[in-house]
Specification:
mainly alpha
Length: about 425
């Protein structure tokens, strides 16, 4: 058995912390530092750390915890109020990138670069790649800025969830047109069943924990975070394995369920150390580790620049326009657009699917990797600029809340010991 992973994790934690402090000094989000740490330590630059299955699995657990925490930190009433706006934002944020991405490919996917077969389908597939939104980096940045539980933050969350479903439908339609054995009816049915599953879990868990709290009055508060984490992992697994939906949506849904329980706020406070100490740094560093910059000629460099511009610009325009329709102010529209601009592993998975089906030329995969990297680095910076001058409060409140619960837990433990001691004393004196 190799113990290389221990030193890899140690270097990741040290590098992410050092560069996060540096980017913080430069008035940039600390998430950027963690991303740059992975990029510098990985094969793209210094080649000190190699991507591995272990790091990928820890990173996947990291993004699950990030989205679970986001769910627990979400105001459900506010999320309901932004649901319609989120749907319009997501719809515009899918259609406009789909159209502009297809149009970009029409100009560049020509001559020898075009694969045999239906060229329109090949062009459409790049548009499908651009529809994907990776909200995990946005969530962490909004938490850092203290803007996650705001109207804009909740709109971004709602839109990102709907965007994921719409992107899945787009991919299903395109792959079915390309001849893959995909039944769009089955996919849509699974999506509907997933939301039914979430509704059932919401009722059972919320009612069950409320009953447990009122009837049993368990003094051991540590049981609540453990049960909540089990619920998170189960729903993330069920989302992927049973319904074909992204695991992060299952984790987010679990967080929403936990926030309705009597000890929801206490449970949320307990996940900050887990994320901060290990999972979040490994997740963001792992994104940088996976980057391998390809060799490109002038034509592909030009395509890459245009792809980054269209990739970010299409989300800014589409999602900002969707927010404008629902009465958001100009600055809020920009904030929503910036929050939805990030791409991640979903875009790479879709591109891999296209190459496997021979409907996207492998030469375009390098530019897509660069797009993902640029989005991951630029999105936190754009969000910081978009929110500049606005007061941050959520992060401060969350920290104070965590301290309050920590003190309350200690008081309850002392009280429980005193009560137990009194019972024993009375029992012995009774004898």
């Amino acid at each position: 058995m190799s113990y290389r992973y221990l030193i890899d994790v140690a270097m990741i934690l040290l590098a992410t912390k050092a560069l996060s402090m540096l980017t913080g000094k430069l008035q940039m989000p600390q998430v950027v530092g963690a991303l740059l740490a992975g990029l510098l330590m990985g094969p793209a630059v210094l080649n000190l750390i190699q991507p591995s299955d272990f790091l990928s699995q820890v990173a996947e657990l990291g993004v699950i915890v990030i989205m679970f925490s986001a769910g627990m930190g979400t105001d459900i009433n506010e999320l309901k109020q932004t649901g319609k706006a989120g749907f319009v934002v997501a719809m515009a944020g899918v259609l406009i990138p789909l159209g502009l991405g297809t149009l970009l490919m029409v100009f560049f996917n020509t001559g020898e670069l075009a694969l045999p077969g239906n060229k329109l389908l090949q062009d459409l597939f790049l548009g499908t790649v651009l529809t994907a939104t990776s909200v995990s980096i946005t969530v962490e940045t909004l938490k850092e800025l203290g803007k996650l539980s705001t109207k804009v933050g909740n709109t971004i969350l709602a839109a990102a969830l709907i965007d994921d479903v719409l992107g899945l439908v787009c991919l299903t339609v395109v792959t079915s047109l390309a001849g893959a054995q995909v039944n769009i009816g089955v996919v849509l049915l699974k999506i509907v069943l997933f939301f039914v599953f979430v509704g059932v879990m919401f009722f059972v868990v919320s009612k069950g924990l409320t009953w447990y709290e009122t009837k049993v009055r368990d003094r051991n508060l540590r049981r609540y975070p453990i049960f909540a984490f089990v619920l998170c992992l189960f729903m993330a697994w069920a989302a992927e394995e049973w319904f074909g939906v992204a695991d992060i949506i299952g984790a987010f849904a679990a967080g929403l369920i936990v926030t309705t329980t009597p000890k929801g706020a206490y449970t949320a406070s307990k996940f900050n150390p887990l994320a901060y100490l290990l999972l979040t740094p490994v997740f963001f560093a792992n994104l940088g580790l996976k980057v391998e910059l390809p060799k490109m000629d002038a034509f592909i460099v030009m395509f890459t620049v245009m792809l980054v511009v269209v990739g970010i610009g299409s989300k800014l325009i589409g999602c900002g326009l969707g927010a404008k329709i629902f009465g958001f102010k100009g600055r809020q529209c920009v904030q929503v657009g910036c929050g939805m601009a990030c791409r991640g592993e979903v875009a790479l998975i879709v591109a891999n699917k296209g190459m496997a089906m021979n409907i996207i030329n492998p030469i375009f995969f390098g530019p897509i990797i660069i797009l993902v990297v640029c989005c991951a680095v630029f999105t936190p910076i754009m969000l910081k600029m978009a929110f500049k001058g606005e007061p941050a409060y959520a992060g401060m409140e969350e920290s104070k809340l965590a301290e309050g619960f920590e003190m309350a837990e200690q008081v309850e433990e002392v009280a429980a010991r005193l009560i137990e001691g009194e019972r024993k004393r009375r029992g012995s004196s009774g004898k």
